[in-house]
Design a protein that fits this description.
It comes from Oxylabes madagascariensis. The protein is an alpha/beta fold. The chain has 8 helices and 11 strands. Strand 1, helix 1 and strand 2 form a beta-alpha-beta unit. The longest helix is centred in the C-terminal third of the chain and has 18 residues.
């Protein structure tokens, strides 16, 4: 029987929701790994809405659960209904929606607050010693909720201009966590906490390399499950 995995989304679109390619990559690798997946998102208003064509704010309001339903092809549930006891693992794709909707990292950095249902989900899986997979900016959730954990968001220096958000690693370290430098096609496993992370679009890399890196994260999560 395949592993039961919960996938948590933050909207739809890189600048105000979940990064679509990351969510899709995670779903493809989970499917290939024989996992049974259910998708969740918090039923809350987005912090903001971005016109992805112009890259500018849009004067409208959108709901995180409603927008995430686009990626889930309508098959999605309110994050408040997620029960860790029904799953073997949980995975969070990245995208600015994680830093805007699932927590306030985009505004407050290391002083951010984490959405109550996101926090409860992370705590429940961690307490049950079930693996947590995070990619792109999502590892900051673990850094905030689990002081002392190990994560990667890629490199801690802007190597060859490929890691423009390298300062995130320093903020993670300031939270008392250990940042592990990894390439885009790799993931890091914090065995003590069963947290698996990969940098994905935190690195400027070809899409297939990001896809492969997310694949290593998913594989490690399924191994730990």
């Amino acid at each position: 029987m395949g592993k039961r995995v919960a996938l948590v989304l933050a909207g739809c679109g890189v600048f105000d929701g979940s990064e679509i390619h990351e969510a899709s990559a995670a779903l493809v690798h989970l499917s290939r790994g024989g996992a049974e997946v259910k998708i969740f998102a918090p039923n809350i208003e987005q912090r903001d809405v971005v016109n992805h064509l112009k890259g500018s704010p849009a004067e409208e309001k959108r709901n995180v659960l409603v927008e995430s339903a686009r990626l889930a092809r309508g098959n999605i549930q309110d994050l408040a209904e997620l029960k860790a006891s029904e799953f073997d693992a949980v995975i969070f794709p990245g995208g600015f929606g994680v830093a805007k909707n699932l927590c306030s990292w985009a505004v407050d950095g290391k002083n951010c607050t984490v959405n109550e249902h996101v926090n409860a989900t992370l705590q429940a899986f961690h307490s049950a010693k079930k693996p947590i997979g995070l990619c792109c900016i999502s590892p900051v959730l673990a850094a905030k909720v689990f002081p002392g954990c190990e994560v990667t968001v890629g490199q801690d220096k802007n190597v060859d201009g490929r890691f423009p958000d390298a300062e995130t690693a320093a903020a993670i370290a300031e939270l008392g966590c250990k940042h592990i430098c990894k390439n885009v096609n790799e993931s890091h496993v914090d065995k003590a906490n069963k947290i698996v992370t990969t940098c994905a679009f935190m690195c400027k890399a070809p899409l297939h390399e990001i896809f492969d890196g997310i694949g290593t994260m998913v594989q490690e999560v399924l191994k730990l499950a």
